[in-house]
């Protein structure tokens, strides 16, 4: 598959590093690059930009038929709260902007610093929670995550992003506000 990552900051560059170790073609693009061409040629588009940039980006290209992975957490500029949540999510807002695409929420609970390592904590692979209304898109992203070294967790429909984004925000609070550092990640334990 061809994967276009829009956003070449810490998260976008980190994901590019991790995903380039798979069999897929990966390219990163800044907002000033030819986003339309990048999206046109991609099978999967990863929006690795702040949530507030999504509306501008989706106006630049036709996302019809594309799997669009939203990794954002819609935090306020001062990181003190979420811009939206509980009754909707950034992922659902983005889905409304690209009605012909298959929007998936994933990778939003992982600090960018993990992408330089082996994607493990205490010997266990980092989990990424994958939510989407389209089951094929959800399965594709779970497969991609597993190939990259994550433990994908099926989180059900896209509306689950209403819980995943606050989980990402909680991770940010632990990591930065409560000074636990970035060598942390949420993990859901399932009984055997």
TrEMBL record:
- Look up the coiled coil feature and give its residue ranges: none
Q: Which GO terms label this protein's molecular function in UniProt?
A: oxidoreductase activity
Q: Which InterPro entries match?
A: NAD(P)-bd_dom_sf, P5C_Rdtase_cat_N, STEAP_metalloreductase
Q: Which residues form the Pyrroline-5-carboxylate reductase catalytic N-terminal domain?
A: 34-74
Q: Which UniProt keywords apply?
A: Oxidoreductase
Q: What Pfam families does the record point to? A: F420_oxidored
Write down what this protein is called: F420-dependent NADP oxidoreductase
């Amino acid at each position: 598959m061809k994967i276009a990552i829009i956003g070449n900051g810490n998260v976008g560059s980190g994901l590019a590093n991790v995903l380039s170790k798979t069999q897929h073609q990966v390219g990163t693009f800044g907002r000033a690059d030819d986003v339309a061409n990048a999206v046109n040629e991609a099978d999967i588009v990863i929006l690795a930009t702040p949530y507030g940039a999504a509306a501008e980006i989706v106006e630049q290209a036709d996302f019809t038929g594309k799997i669009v992975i939203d990794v954002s957490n819609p935090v306020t500029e001062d990181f003190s709260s979420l811009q939206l949540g509980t009754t909707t999510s950034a992922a659902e807002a983005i889905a409304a902007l690209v009605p012909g695409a298959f929007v998936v929420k994933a990778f939003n609970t992982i600090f960018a610093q993990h992408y330089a390592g082996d994607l493990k904590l205490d010997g266990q692979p980092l989990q990424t929670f994958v939510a989407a209304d389209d089951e094929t898109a959800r399965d594709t992203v779970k497969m991609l995550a597993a190939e990259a070294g994550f433990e994908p967790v099926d989180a059900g429909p896209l509306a689950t992003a209403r819980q995943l984004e606050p989980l990402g925000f909680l991770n940010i609070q632990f990591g930065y506000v409560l000074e636990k550092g970035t060598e942390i990640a949420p993990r859901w334990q399932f009984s055997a």
